[in-house]
Amino acid sequence: MFSKTFSALLLTALSVSASPALQARQGSGIASYYYPDGGFGACGNVLQNGDFIVALGTDTWAGGAHCGQTINVQYQGRSIQVTVQDLCEGCAARGANGLDLSQGAMAALDPNYINDGIITVTWSFA
Q1: How far apart are alpha carbons 81 and 75 in whole angstroms?
Q2: What is the distance between the alpha carbons of residues 58 and 77, in angstroms, rounded to a whole number?
Q3: Is 63 among the domain residues?
Q4: Residue 12, φ and ψ in degrees, nearest 5
Q5: How many domains does the chain have?
Q6: pLDDT tens, position by position, for the chain (126 residues)?
Q7: CA-closest candidate to residue 88, choices 80, 79, 97
Q8: pTM of the shown model
Q9: CATH code for the domain in which residue 73 is found
Q10: What residue numbers bound the domain in which 63 lies?
Q11: Do residues 43 and 68 make contact, with C-beta atoms less than 8 angstroms apart?
């Protein structure tokens, strides 16, 4: 009986202490875009170009702990919500907090994305 109670308390304490670290990440960073083309993302799901998804940079990836979480992304007065579904290993070259948005998400955020290529956005976990 004691071991079950102690185990439950320990698991609760660990999950409470880990949650703020996973939710706290936010900031500004460089966003680029990519075409998933029906391939599998690092979170294990099939991804389409029009999906509102994001690939996190290795500095934010946390071993996939954010898979399925929603992120708010803002750019020049526009705001979208995207779901973490992939890992962007190349985002680290663009600095901390870099993101790779699916083509559909980038188009909604920046109608001139083809010409702009990469943009500086602000983002936070929802």
Answers
A1: 12
A2: 27
A3: yes
A4: -65, -45
A5: 1
A6: 444 433 333 333 333 334 334 444 678 999 999 999 999 999 999 999 999 999 999 999 999 999 999 999 999 999 999 999 999 999 988 888 999 999 999 999 999 999 999 999 999 999
A7: 97
A8: 0.80
A9: 2.40.40.10
A10: 25-125
A11: yes
